[in-house]
Specification:
The chain is an alpha/beta fold and about 250 residues long. The chain is built from five helices and 14 strands.
Length: about 250
């Protein structure tokens, strides 16, 4: 019996640390009010040194979907001090190979690294970065706010001069109840689905003031709907269990 327990532990360890973090699935949602646009939402890349192949896999999958628009919740950087991440210039160069228009906000890891450097690298490769402002794509307004941990999100300023239909892009879901204006959709990341999820229980822990409440999924607790992605990468420990990295596809 003891040998079987050890065997199962080894299998689960290998799966959680070496296999599942390198998988990739497409999570589909429907949104009736976005003029039949096909939108991809991605977040929390956390590309480490030596992980350019994983990034290329993500870019290839997005191009295969061939969306009208790609939205990103940020966190391209791995780690807190820049020592373990692939340089943002290399990350941005690969992301520049996405064939669809890309609009992004920045995450807390991007801010700790150097948000101005991250923004410059992304925009040099054709990626629009929103920081408490908005842009328009084919009659669809995209508003994006600053990261809550490393800056000050200004929802009102971001939504200035926008009309329906509009999407609010935020790195963290923690601002959900602060959004008093009605928008068509809120997209958030940051919490990685918890990275470790127990069947029938869900996430064990999330970096959120609301605990695991907004770990990932589809939420409608106010006048606004919010989709939270489980993200693409990992933070602190390179582990995922019952939380496969995902690309969100909104039809």
């Amino acid at each position: 019996m003891y040998k079987y327990v050890i065997f199962i532990f080894i299998v689960l360890f290998v799966w959680a640390f070496f296999i599942e973090p390198n998988l990739l699935v497409i999570k589909r949602y429907n949104a009736k009010n976005l003029e039949n646009k096909k939108i991809v939402f991605v977040s929390d890349f956390h590309i480490a040194k030596g992980e350019k192949a994983r990034l290329r896999k993500i870019v290839k999958k997005i191009n295969k979907i061939n969306p009208d628009l790609v939205l990103s919740g940020g966190d391209y950087i791995k780690g807190h001090d820049g020592k373990t991440t692939l340089p943002i210039e290399d990350i941005a160069e690969e992301l520049g190979k996405i064939k669809s228009p890309v609009i992004s906000v920045l995450g807390n890891h991007d801010g700790w690294y150097d948000k101005y450097r991250v923004q410059k690298a992304l925009e040099r490769n054709g990626i629009k970065v929103l920081r408490n402002n908005s842009t328009i794509f084919k009659n669809l307004y995209i508003a994006g706010v600053e990261d809550l941990q490393t800056s000050m999100p200004d929802i009102s300023t971001a939504l200035e001069n926008t009309e329906h239909q509009r999407i609010l892009l935020t790195h963290t879901p923690d601002i959900y109840y602060d959004i008093k204006d009605e928008v068509d959709l809120i997209l958030a990341g940051h919490v990685h689905g918890g990275q470790v999820r127990i069947p029938f229980i869900g996430a064990l822990i999330c970096p959120s003031i609301y605990g695991t409440k907004f770990s990932k999924g589809d939420f409608k607790e106010t006048q606004n709907r919010m989709i939270v992605t489980g993200g693409l990468g990992t933070s602190i420990l390179t582990v995922r269990f019952c939380d496969i990295p995902e690309i969100v596809l909104i039809n």
